[in-house]
Structures are given as C-alpha cells and as structure tokens.
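Weekly sync, protein design subgroup
Attendees: M.S., D.O., the rotation student, P.L. (late)

Item 1: inverse folding check
M.S. brought a backbone from last month's batch and wanted to see whether the design step gives back something sensible before we order anything. D.O. pointed out we never logged the input encoding, so this time it goes straight into the notes. Structure tokens as presented (190 positions):
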C-alpha cells in the first residue's frame, strides 16, 4: 500500500461495485459523497445517512440481524407492523436510531485534520481518525450524535405501549432530520 499512489487507490476504490445492502448511497448523503470524491485528496469508503432499525439483540452479526430498517422517516404504522415480526424473535429486539456516519480516506495527515475540523464545525461531534500509521491508509470516521437505543421486545412481548411508540417515532424522525441537516452543513462548508 505504501508504494501505491493515493490517486491510484482512490481510482481503484471508486471504480468498484457498491457492496452495501441497498446498492448505492442513501439519497440524503449522495451529494456530500460526490463532493468529497471530487476533491483531490479524499474519497469515501462507506456511508449511511442515518437509519431507524429493529435489530436482534445478539452478540454476533448474522444475515438476518435486522427485523426492520429504514433510511427515511418512519411512521407509527410502519413501526407497529414491524413489531409484529419482532415479537417472534427469541433473542429480543432493540430499537435504534443511528446517526449519519461516513468513512473518508485522506491523502495526508494534514488533509485528515482539515476534513475533521470541517466535520466538527458542521456538528459531526463524534468524529476522529480511525487508522493512521506507516503503510496504512489514513481513514476518518465522521459521525453525528443523534443516537437512540433501547430494548423494545423481550420474551416475545413489546415492552412499551402505543403512546410510547408514537413518542419514539416522533423523536426518531426529529433526530433523523437533525442528522440530515448536518449532512447539508458539511457539504456547504466543504
């Protein structure tokens, strides 16, 4: 890796097929990823614009880990219907709202520092350098703070009532909109 020029690694990475489960960028983060990839000293490795999920409460990842996943705002009806499937999971199920996350490869440490400062300026507070060192890529993990996580199904029973579910939907959607605002802010400061 040390002898391969950054521009070549960037070209190789960006020419590969998308391996994500949705086969491309989430709409809210697409323009930001394109902007970063147009900059000479950066390229994106992976991204998520934020999502609401019902996820099995297990230690190891499995192919059927997600009971429900949405990269858009959710409705009470959607969540209620997804919980009908979730109560069948013997492992129990967590509800999570996960904020925007973006992995960016940088040509030099100075470039990483510039991008990290721009991300923090745009409100991406949980951001830092993931890898750094001789012979390694310099990779940033840029992440926002709008998390929500709670157990929602245990022993094949939904742990909360419909009123709480409505509050959960409202709060999740508010946090998702905040994470999308931060995506737009970072795009503007770049």
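Designed sequence read out in the meeting:
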């Amino acid at each position: 890796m040390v002898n391969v020029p950054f521009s070549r690694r960037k070209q190789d990475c960006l020419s590969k097929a998308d391996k994500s489960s949705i086969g491309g960028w989430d709409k809210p983060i697409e323009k930001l990823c394109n902007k970063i990839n147009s900059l000479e000293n950066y390229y994106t490795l992976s991204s998520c614009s934020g999502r609401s999920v019902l996820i099995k409460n297990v230690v190891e990842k499995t192919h059927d880990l997600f009971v429900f996943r949405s990269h858009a705002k959710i409705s009470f009806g959607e969540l209620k219907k997804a919980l009908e499937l979730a109560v069948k999971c013997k492992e129990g199920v967590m509800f999570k709202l996960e904020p925007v996350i973006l992995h960016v490869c940088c040509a030099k440490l100075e470039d990483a520092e510039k991008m990290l400062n721009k991300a923090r300026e745009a409100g991406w507070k949980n951001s830092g350098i993931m890898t750094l060192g001789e012979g390694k890529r310099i990779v940033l993990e840029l992440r926002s703070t709008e998390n929500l996580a709670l157990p929602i199904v245990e022993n094949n029973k939904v742990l909360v009532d419909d009123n709480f579910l409505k509050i959960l939907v409202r709060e999740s959607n508010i946090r998702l909109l905040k994470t999308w605002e931060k995506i737009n802010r970072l795009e503007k400061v770049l």
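Discussion: Strands lie at 42-48, 51-56, 66-70, 93-98, 101-106, 128-131, 138-143, 148-154, 157-158. Residues 162-189 form the longest helix (28 residues).
Action: P.L. to compare against the previous round before Friday.
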